Fold each of these.
Amino acid sequence: MNSPAGIDTHAPLTPDPSPIANVASGDLSEGPGVIAESPTRLWLGTPRRILYINVSRIGDTLLVTPAVRAVAAAFPGAEITLLGHPKRAEILRHLPFVSRVGAISKQRAPWLGRFAGRTFDLAFVCGYDAALFDYALRVAGKVVAFRQPDEALNARLFRAVEHPAAQTEHAVRIQLRLPGALGIAPAGLDLAYCVSGEETRRARAELARSLPAGASPLIGLQVASFPTKAYRDWPLDHFIALADRVRVVWPQAHFLIFGGSEEKERTGKLSEHLGAAATRYAGRLTLRQTAALMNELDLYVGVDTGPTHIMGALHRPMVALYHGYSPSQVLAPLDHPCAYPVDHPLADRGATPETPMADIAVEQVWQAVARALADNPPRRP
């Protein structure tokens, strides 16, 4: 197969051994990923090469992984190529149900797929960038996407799927509407991320070098969202008060401070306050290095942002703080064994971006932290 430029080849697709069963077309009930013996399947045939395009931020990149997994389970013999944002595609590497991962952008897409013909049988496209749709229509026999403002474009799609109104449905279930339009049911609602063995080895070596003897529990802190969603940020003095509360009960607690270069001032103040009880990694790591360290945590506490979605995909204990304008019911990880979401008091009660996150009391978050550590005892002595 002629692959688009920039695609990395990884391990072969892992077949799902579960049998194929019949479901009603469009059924989004929980269970194994299946595709119906329906007119939709008769028109579709059995695709061998499937393209999935999702150019977005970290969180939205991961929120699509349950949908991709459902497609893989429905077509266990197919090769799935997953294309993401050039700066985010790395978080999709090593997923067992994806054959190839690569990068694409709306700037680069017009130059791709001009000569190789239709190298994919089926494509799913997330979002609304016309350049990505033009590319998908060049390289795939059938394209499924959410309904676009351009009716001429909708007429070229194999399925134009209705997008629900904002904040009315969980983001994972929204993305599952695309495969659901072909009769494909979910193969689990949890987010997917895979830390490699080598990444785990390096993360543990880093912690062995940096942690003081007897440090426990190991707690990660993500104090800020990205700049355009700054209304999701919990006040820094609230984080400091929470950390002090933890240290009263857990004197040997050690904090790993995550984040980007944008929040350098805030993470610096937090690190200065905690002193030897913290290691600041903000602005020092790649996404995958950050995820590998997060996978070693006893607990993660963070606001609603990309690294919090990564933590949701790792299935490790986490306390996540959600603004009332984007509450947990639409963004918190689903099918997660140890997630403790904390919602703003005005969740579902008319919150706007101007509603202050300071309204989430330190005591409310502390209760979630204490419960998480009681339910999931630290792995280190």
Amino acid sequence: MKILFQHDGILPIKKYGGTERIIFWHIRRLIKLGHKVSLIGSIRSIELEKLGVKLIAKNQKDWRPLIPPDTDIVHLFYTPEFDLDIPYIVTIEGNGHPGEKFKKNTAFISKKHAEIHSGNYFVYNGIDLEDYPHPNFSDKKFYANPSNKNYWNHFSFLAKAKWKVKNVKGAVTATQMAKKHLHIAGGRVFSLSSYTHSYGMVDQNDKIKILRQSSALIFPVRWHEPFGIAIIEAFSQGLPVIGTPYGSLPELINNKTGIICNNIDELIDAVFQPTQAFDPEEIRDYVEEILKHKELSHLVKKDADHFIGTMLDCIKRAVKKGDNVSLIGFGTFTKVRRAARIGMNPSTGKKIRIKAKTVPKFRPGQAFKASV
């Protein structure tokens, strides 16, 4: 399929930028699956061209005239001021403003996120595990290994520290009260305490280092977190997450992947002593198997019908234009031309002339044929 994104920010982002990272991972994955991807946005996103992305400079507010005519679907990460003449989907990553209206084809990023905004659909965010290598959990130098002598003495905080709703103050208070070390990535935090370590905005490599020198992530948000990429970043490195009962956190954190704290006293207690020795391998598996292949069991029949209808509409539009549409493992839809020929009327047995025509054709994939 030919898929278009529109985003004004620079891609890929080097340091902070949750939405930008989600878009970049999405684009990279689509290209690996064989789709053609275009982006209307900043010319400074030129690095995307190395991946095979067609970069279209946005030089006007109304970017609709820039849409390539063979585009099958547009994916936006904001609510557009106008409608499009071709299929499009909107993914909302943040919390909306009071009274904000969303399109019917809007997907949110957690169940709670959808409920708050009266939405019908949600799809959890994911991370590209290529950027989060599998640690050697058996290495006793690894701080999330319960056998490490520093286990549960070092914690990390990944978020924009200046956002009060991220509650870096709560994380600092809890670790200082428990006399444990806190490593903050996401802005500078001034503290005279030897237990608080602030690194400012960090890149991917430094973030991985900080996570691997921690036993858990502290994520004490004080708002309904839409998703929280930092949570699954921590999970990818085998770290449990100590969080609060807001937004997506109760959906993502269970008794095997972390601790939910309802107040500052519970947060201090959780930092002081874990409720159990968490298994880092099991936490990594949670990302690889559960979040990566999450079943959309929250969809009711009408929602599923809507998604399927949109997909079929995209397939029909693409095949009509002469494009091949491949669904990996399922099969390929194509358009073929049948020449005029002589046939026979089954009722009379007389020969008849059959006109040339164009018809759709489906070629099943190997995985589909093997399953039947």
